Amino acid sequence: MPKNDVFDLTCELIACESVTPDDGGCQDILAARLKVLGFCVEQINAHDTKNLWATKGSTGPHLMFAGHTDVVPTGPLDAWQSPPFTPTVKAGYLYGRGTADMKSSLAAMIVAIERLLQQHPDLHGTLSLLITSDEEGDATYGTQYAIEQLQERGINPDYCIVGEPSSHQQLGDMVRCGRRGSLNAQLTIHGVQGHVAYPADVTNPIHLAAPALAELSQTEWDSGNEYYPPTSLQISNISAGTGATNVVPGHLTAQFNLRFNTEQTSLSLQKNVSDLFNKHNLEFDIEWRLSGEPFLTERGQLTAAVTAAIAENTGLTTQLSTSGGTSDGRFISPWCLPGSNQVEVIELGPCNATIHKIDERVALSELEPLANIYQSIASKLLL
Questions:
Q1: 311-358 pLDDT, tens per residue?
Q2: How far apart, in whole angstroms, are the C-alpha atoms of residue 291 and residue 58?
Q3: Phi, psi for 357 (deg, rounded to 5)
Q4: Which of 135, 293, 344, 360 is catalytic?
C-alpha cells in the first residue's frame, strides 16, 4: 500500500485502547506532532479526563479544530471480524473501534495542519485544537470544563470544525450546522400499595399513568422550522411492581427524552410536561437532566468555506443538517466573551453508518480527501 499520512496516523490512534474516559495515549501522539509545528501545547485536565489544548498564532481570525479521543466500549469481542483495537484493512475499509468516530478525523486534522503550515508558514490568523477524552461519557470534565478555563483567559474562537462523522452516504454529502437539544426526565408517579383483591384500598399508579403517558407520547410540540424537524419525545423505560401478581405497586417510574429545536427551550418543555401530569391529577415527581440546548450556525463565512471546500474536493453540493444526536458542539457554540459573537460551528467528518457498532469502519477512500477538505477550509478562513 502506498504511503498515506492520514491512514498511518489513524492506525496509530486506533491501536490506543481509549474507552471513555481513558485517552489511551492518543493525545500524547497528537501533541508530539503539534509541538514540531510550533504549537503551544498544554493539558487542561480534570479528574480522570484529559483535555489537549494547542494553539499557534494570537491575532486575526481564530479557527479551532475540535474532537475526542475516547471511544465507546467494544461490545462482545468475539462478534468482531478482527480485534477492535488492531487496525485491519479489508475490502477497501479500515476496521477498528474509533475509525469513524472519530480517530480518522483527528488524523486528518493533524495532517491538514501539517500540510497547510508547510505551504504557508506565516498564517494570517490563529489555529487551535481542543481534544478531549470525555465526549462519549458524562462529558462533565471534557470540552465544557476546558472551555470554562479558556474563557477565563479571554480566549474566544471565531470558527470551529468538529470532526464528528457527519457524512451520510459519501464523504461531504452532509455536514451538521447545528444539533437539537436533549432533555432527559426521570418520572415517578405515586400510588398506594395493597392487595389486588381490595381495589378500594389501593391507588394503582400503572392505571393512573397509562392515559397520561399516552397523551405525553402523542403530543405535538411544534412543527419544526427551516433548520429543524419537529420536537420529539420518546419513552425509553417504564418500571413498576413488586414481582408478585397479587400486589398493586406503590409507585411507577418512567424515563423519557425530548429532542427539541429552537422553537422550544428546556424550561418551556419542563413546564408543559408538568402541566400535562397535573391535568391528570397525578401525584408525581420529575427529575430533569439537560444534556444541551439546541444550537445553530446560520449561513455565513464558515458555512461558505465548508461548502466550497467540499465542492472543490468531492464535486458534491453538501447538505446543511441539524439531525442526529448531541455532540460537543453544544458547548462550543455558545462560547463567547462579552461583546463577542457565538462561535460558528460545523461538524464535518466521514460516513457515520457504522459508528458505535460492531465492526466499525471507515472507507480508505475517505481519508486523504477529508484532510484535503480540512486544509482547504483553513486556507479560505486564514490566508
A1: 999 999 999 999 887 899 999 999 988 888 899 999 999 999 999 999
A2: 32
A3: -100, 165
A4: 135
What strands lie across the sheet with 344-347, from one edge to the other? 40-43, 51-56, 126-132, 62-68, 159-162, 344-347, 174-176, 319-321
Distance, CA of 124 to CA of 41 (rounded, Å): 20
Question: The whole model's pTM is what?
Answer: 0.88
Q: Is the pLDDT of residue 3 over 60?
A: no
pLDDT in tens, 286-306: 999 998 889 999 999 999 999
Q: How many other C-beta atoms lie within 10 A of the C-beta of residue 192?
A: 14
Residue 1: predicted pLDDT: 37
Q: Looking at the chain, which residues constitute the CATH 3.40.630.10 domain(s)?
A: 5-179+294-382
Range(s) for CATH 3.30.70.360 in the chain? 181-292
Measured in Å, how far apart are the chain's first and last C-alpha atoms?
34
Q: Active site includes 101?
A: no
Q: Provide the pLDDT for residue 2.
A: 40
Active site residue 70: yes
Pick the CATH number of 181-292 from 3.20.20.30, 3.40.50.2000, 3.30.70.360, 3.30.300.130: 3.30.70.360
Q: Which of 70, 114, 158, 360 is catalytic?
A: 70
Would you state the cell numbers that stand for residue 254, as one nine-digit string?
Answer: 418512567
**Domain 5-179+294-382 is of which CATH architecture?**
3-Layer(aba) Sandwich (3.40)
What is the average pLDDT across 203-226?
97
Angle of helix 205-218 versus helix 266-279 axis, rounded to 10: 130
